[in-house]
Write a structure and sequence with these properties.
60s Ribosomal Protein L30, Chain: A, 154 residues, five-stranded mixed β-sheet, 3 helices, alpha+beta, 31% helix
Length: 154
């Protein structure tokens, strides 16, 4: 078992199955030592979509948990593409979109759920650049979507 997988187990985290595309695109694309990950959407423990708006249907804490589910899907997709999470050199970039009411001003606090989870699992390798912004809608009305770029060892 890889060091990163051991850490995940020690944290009591279970990675979901890697995601499948909801359209005509691929979940990940490796170019050199970079893996570009398509957006993953918030899902509950039963793999159902977490649809709703932050600032209306969900609290910041609920959004934080939704973004955490996105981080776990990102790790699952990296593992599928790279073969081993220990190959991660660095999470380079995270872009988080929050389905929000017009007056909701806390998308960064929501996307912290993804960022904190990546750092919790990967340590310094999980620190990344980031954007977090509110949007009027997301696919299926889901509450959070996150995409990422990850550097891996050859």
């Amino acid at each position: 078992m890889s060091h990163t997988r051991e850490k995940i187990a020690a944290l009591g985290i279970a990675l979901p199955a890697p995601t499948t595309p909801m359209g005509n695109y691929v979940p990940s694309l490796r170019i050199g030592n970079l893996i570009y990950l398509s957006g993953v959407v918030a899902r509950d423990a039963n793999d159902g979509l977490l649809a709703g708006k932050l600032g209306g249907d969900y609290t910041v804490e609920q959004g934080y948990q939704a973004a955490r589910s996105c981080a776990l899907q990102i790790l699952a997709n990296v593992e599928r593409e790279a073969g081993d999470l220990d190959r991660i050199v660095h999470i380079v970039r995270v872009s988080g979109m929050v389905n929000a009411t017009p007056d909701f001003t806390e998308p960064p606090a929501v996307i912290n759920g993804c960022s904190d989870t990546l750092v919790e699992v990967l340590g310094d390798r999980g620190c990344h650049t980031r954007s977090a912004f509110g949007v009027a809608t997301l696919p299926g009305g889901v509450s959070v979507e996150v995409e990422a770029v990850v550097e891996i060892r050859a």
